[in-house]
Amino acid sequence: MEIIAGTIDSFSADVLFDMARYRHEVFVEKLGWKLHTRGRLELDEFDRKDTIYLIARNPDGEIVGTSRLLPTHRPYLLASVFPQLLGDTPAPCSPDIWELSRFAAGDGTRLGMGGDPHGWSLALDMLSAAMRTVAKEGGRRLISASPLGIERILRRTGLSAHRAAPPVRVDGQLLFACLIDVDKNWCPHRNHHADGTGRVARRPAGEAAAAIHSIQEPES
User: Where are the transmembrane segments (predicted)?
Assistant: First the structure.
């Protein structure tokens, strides 16, 4: 299992297409989210050239997990789409705070929701990788639209997590803006890291600079 961090310039067009298909399978087909899609690909306006992705792949090269990281001093999903989750709290706008979104692992496990045991284990590994990645960028906190109950789960693993505002029901599910203090040394499993070394592989810029833009082009 490997978890790789990078921007769209870091991955081949095939990997980006596979990521968009995986996101569609998880968020649209399995979770039933009503998202703008193109065919069986799921991307939105927050999939930009400056977006950092985490992509988990199994030994066969298949994508088994994804997440997206955005600094909050630039446009991000929570502030733009779910501002009600922040209540009276001003939306974070700082390079110190990064949004974690489009987070899924294994069979579609999301933090705070049920799923297969392997998916849950991978989800925690991906959260650990996200914190190490954000720490390298100077980030000190993550914020994410999360299902109720995630605070308790994260605290059991030793993380500091709390609500930015009271939970709000969205499409029948209680969600809240979860703030997580970044701990780059946190590991959910004793003597175990996502890549076996405690490091997250970081892809250098490569040949796919316009790949996501080509995915999003309108039909002719």
Answer: none
